[in-house]
Amino acid sequence: GNTYLTEHQFCQLLGRMRLYQSLPQSQQKTIPRMLLTDSQINNVAKSYIQDENFGSLGSDLSMWKFYNLLTGANKNSYIDSFLDRAYNATE
Predict the structure, then answer these.
(1) pLDDT tens for each residue of the chain, 91 residues long
(2) Cβ neighbours around 9 below 10 Å, total
(3) Range of the domain at 38
């Protein structure tokens, strides 16, 4: 609850999340897995701007709100991948 991301850090993190899918397999194996898809990452960005409860446009974003943005984007997953992605969001 005491850890925050600045808006700049949040944007950098989203950008790196988008790049993950394009990395060669050898590089993907050296960093933590990222199971969220590009469309889910887009949902995180959209919610950051529009969500009244967890969005933080223009201010620092608590890690709790960031976690909720990730899990909110994951709710659109198929049931067979929902649990894996939810667990991955906590990693």
Answers:
(1) 689 999 999 999 999 999 998 999 999 999 888 878 888 899 888 988 888 877 777 788 888 888 888 888 877 655 556 556 666 666 6
(2) 13
(3) 4-90
63-74 helix and 38-50 helix, angle to the nearest 10 degrees: 130
Whole-angstrom distance, CA of residue 71 vs CA of residue 85: 8
- Give the sign of the dihedral formed by CA 28, CA 32, CA 36, CA 38: negative
Query: What is the Cα–Cα distance from 60 to 44, expressed in whole angstroms?
Result: 15
Task: Please tell me the pTM assigned to this model.
Answer: 0.74
Total tally of structural domains belonging to the chain: 1
Task: Kindly report the backbone phi and psi dihedral angles of residue 32, in degrees, each rounded to the nearest multiple of 5, phi listed first.
Answer: -55, 145
The Cα–Cα gap between 24 and 84 comes to 22
Tokens coding 54:
């967890």
Taking Cα atoms as reference points, which of 9, 33, 39, 8 lies closest to residue 20? Answer: 33
Give the pair of three-digit tokens for residue 79.
């049931």
